From TrEMBL:
It holds the Pfam family Cellulase. Residues 121-372 form the Glycoside hydrolase family domain. GO terms for biological process: cellulose catabolic process. Residues 48-92 have a biased composition (Basic and acidic residues). Its EC number is 3.2.1.4. GO terms for molecular function: cellulase activity. InterPro entries: GH (IPR017853), Glyco_hydro_5 (IPR001547), Glyco_hydro_5_CS (IPR018087). Keywords: Carbohydrate metabolism, Cellulose degradation, Glycosidase, Hydrolase, Polysaccharide degradation. Belongs to the glycosyl hydrolase 5 (cellulase A) family. It comes from Pseudobutyrivibrio ruminis. This is cellulase.
Length: 420
């Protein structure tokens, strides 16, 4: 016989077993995350929103960084945001500008420049040496003076100056091409000055007279042009004004002096400290005439140009004589090829010129940043790239210059160490 009590205990046991089995199955499912209680639904939605948010930010961030013509405000935002991006998830840097071959150096930026005792110095009186490139004519090859190209010169070559050769009379020159050409040239200059400033580089605005042998021919244009430039770049301590490239033909130092005495005050009235370069007779090679009768302004340097394939020891002597006399000289244009801008590198003469540049710590710009099919172009004529160049993209002179930058820096460093 089964007692009432036993029946009752059996029922209880069955109920307890059922609870244990159901509870166990439910517990395992809960652990696996298959069960969501109604009160958890609100929380889950909130979490999903949190996950979505950063993705939205990343998308916007990429747009901001890629935008080339960002305003100052945009730039600040762009500067701040990458930090956040890195914390969330490492994303590849936007289109790198440092993919080209590199000299591995970065030449110094010195701030405002002055001329003291025939030499270029910074605010503390420390010697300054600028080393860089000259553009070809801005109307011919504007694609090499863009923000990307200039940034890459700084990142890959390490140089600290670019000269903007704006022809006045040759091919679509400033004084002969009409208003549209004038406007375009000024836009090119503006982009280049901004890029140079952004990359801690000096920039020379070069009034590139050539077939108009005498700077007085377009003097009134020059006065108007430099007046406009100096107002625009009054606060840019990195802008250098070259008021005439290469006077030639029968232009005398007296002619140049008369021109300089009118143009220099136009610049100095706005920026009393601007560094100004003045061309010299005979394609900027006659320093003797200047020594006899220099200009009466401060912060002036006279230009001397050489092409190693054509100009040799007598030209070097003329330069070193003037330097020994204390004349401030800036090599605003030179080449290791012939004076017609073509031919092969004369490496024997080039090395001798380089010794003079090193010994006197001269500032210089090599002619020219383009891929024109001529020996002086730094880029091979079959290369269309305007930034991030590989060594193979360079011409013979381009490779020679690139190697020289590397070697020279080693040399300068070891000299500095020796002096300590
Ligand atoms: C040359 C260019 C060449 C261009 C020519 C225009 O290399 O492509 O067709 O000008 O006349 C200078 C001048 C510079 C010359 C350069 C080479 O300042 O404008 O460039 N040179 O001839 N002085 C000495 C040499």
């Amino acid at each position: 016989m089964v007692s009432k009590k036993q029946k009752f205990l059996t029922v209880i046991l069955v109920i307890v077993l059922a609870i244990v089995i159901v509870g166990g199955v439910f517990g395992i499912s809960y652990m696996k995350g298959d069960v969501t209680f109604p009160w958890q639904l609100v929380e889950t939605e909130a979490k999903r929103e949190e996950v979505k948010e950063p993705a939205k930010e990343q998308k916007e961030l990429k747009v901001t960084v890629k935008e080339p013509k960002s305003t100052e405000q945009d730039k600040e935002v762009a500067k701040e945001e990458p930090k956040e991006e890195k914390e969330q998830e490492p994303v590849k840097e936007p289109a790198a500008l440092t993919d080209g071959d590199s000299t591995g150096i970065t030449l110094d930026y010195y701030g405002a420049l002055h001329v003291e005792d025939g030499a270029l110095v910074d605010n503390t009186g420390k010697a300054v040496q600028l080393t860089g490139v000259s553009s070809h004519g801005l109307s011919w090859f504007p694609e090499y003076v863009t923000a990307d190209s200039i940034k890459s010169l700084r990142d890959n070559w390490g140089i600290n100056v670019i000269r903007l050769a704006m022809y006045t009379s040759d091919y679509n020159g400033y004084c002969v091409g009409g208003q549209d050409i004038k406007d375009t040239l000024k836009e090119n200059i503006d982009e280049a000055v901004k890029a140079a400033t952004d990359n801690d580089m000096y920039v020379i605005i070069d009034w590139h007279i050539l077939n108009d042998s005498n700077p007085n021919e377009y003097k009134s244009d020059a006065i108007q042009f430099f007046g406009e430039m100096v107002r625009k770049y009054e606060d840019n301590e990195n802008v250098i004004y070259e008021i005439c490239n290469e006077p030639n033909g029968d232009t005398t130092w007296e002619d140049i002096k008369a021109y300089a005495n009118e143009v220099i005050p136009v610049i100095r009235n706005v920026n009393k400290d601007a560094l100004i370069l003045v061309g010299t007779p005979k394609w900027s090679s006659d320093l003797d005439s200047v020594l006899d009768d220099p200009l009466e302004f401060d912060n002036i340097m006279y230009t001397y140009h050489f092409y190693a394939g054509s100009h040799k020891s007598s030209a070097r002597n003329a330069l070193t004589n003037a330097l020994e006399e204390g004349l401030p000289v800036f090599i605003s244009e030179y080449g290791f090829v012939s004076a017609d801008g073509d031919g092969a590198v004369d490496s024997k003469e080039a090395a001798k010129w380089q010794e003079v540049i090193d010994e006197y710590q001269l500032s210089s710009c090599i002619w020219n940043l383009s891929n024109k099919a001529e020996g002086s172009a730094l880029i091979a004529s079959d290369c269309d790239k305007t930034a991030d160049l590989q060594y193979d993209d360079l011409s013979e002179q381009g490779q020679y210059f690139f190697d020289m930058l590397k070697d020279n820096t080693k040399q300068t460093k070891s000299n500095t160490e020796k002096r300590r």
